[in-house]
Design a protein that fits this description.
The chain has 446 residues and is of the alpha/beta class. The chain has 18 helices and ten strands. The protein has three domains: 21-104 and 216-312, 3-Layer(aba) Sandwich (Rossmann fold), CATH 3.40.50; 115-213, no CATH class; 324-443, DNA polymerase, domain 1 (Orthogonal Bundle), CATH 1.10.150. β7 (237-242), α9 (259-273) and β8 form a beta-alpha-beta unit. The protein starts with 13 loop residues before the first strand and ends with a helix.
Length: 446
Amino acid sequence: ESHFPGSSTVILDRNYRSTPQILAVANAVLLEGGSTALVKLKAQRRDGPVPQVFTHDDAEAEARAIARAVRDRHSPGKAWSHQAVLVRTNAQAMLIVEEFKRSGIPHAVRGGGSLLTQPEIRAALNSLRSAPSLEMGLADIEDAVRSEASEFIRTQVDDQTGGTNKQGRVNDHSMNDERAANLMELVRLGHEYTELDPTGGIAGFPAWLTSTLQGDDRAVGDVVEIMSFHAAKGLEWPVVHLAGLEEGFVPIHHAKDQPASIEEERRLLYVAMTRARDELLCNWAMARTFGTRSVKRKPSRWVETITETVQVAAPVLSGEAGARRARETRRALRNSAERSSKQSGSGRKADGGRSRGSANASGSTRERVKALGDNQAIFEELRKWRKAQADSADVPAFVVFSDETLIELAQVRPKAKKDLLNIHGIGPVKAERYCDDILAIIAGYR
């Protein structure tokens, strides 16, 4: 306005792509950083399925699970091209490509080229031709990566930093994490090849790589697209599968603890999550192979935020089903205490009290709040505080805390941060973030 007097500012804060559930989880990731500079988008679509988080034993199990999930969501009315798999680095895509080939899932690797087109991979394959054996050549490549790459790859393999590049063809003192990860993936594939064909040797390895990884990279039409978070910017799909949500990938290791870099990684994850229109599935593996070593992994620091938000979100709500659920809820709130009591009784009869009707076992939220007695005032004060927090972050109230959590807080009246961790719906992240506010509110009623 200082440059153009009389002009007005229009804030584009409406999102017409993703469901409220997907946007709520994505906004929660942004909220975790405490940033107020970015515009928090508001969903304009109807409710949809709540995002899901899956933990897998290892990267191979993750790839198999993603392939199953992709097949489950394909039908005559739902094309393969309605789905995408997004990864942080191109090297991560290779396991998924292999599994898709085994499963007969049509796919295409987009953005950044396939593994075989990368300069460092071409150089490494050239170096293998002069190696005494495939095993020795792969060992030389792994030693070169351990010696020359960043701390990221070295720590994935072991605590040693030694090793030399006997071939002298893939050393690069400016080798970045992406190139190093590609080379370690080549080593992994090399050992997979020798297990499948012990007599294949160096001569057969390039042909096997080509048949395993290439062929669908230029595919068009009805295919599942596999690409990096960066390559997915500006695109969208009804269903998005995120793979490898682990420390070292998300955020990428070279970001380390640099605040600006970490925030950039957070925004990149937000972009990846909001590529989904209807359904978002998040995955991470507890172990992953780098070169010849299997390494234990930790979930991304933002997986906890995603999980906590998902836990307090409503179950699947979509289209007419969502509207029907809302009408049913409003009718239930208008019912008399006698009817609520009858529904509670019927709910307890089925499945040991864990059927859908068991949600009424302790009455509606309104009845449960009344049952708080003198603690109702604490609940109301907490609800006002929650609304202020949600409004400031432009997220639904349940992203902060559910009514269930607020009721339990009012009942238990915790006195210290450690007590908050015993409350349903409060994990370490939320306990740290909201501890002072919650304890101050409760202390005011003692």
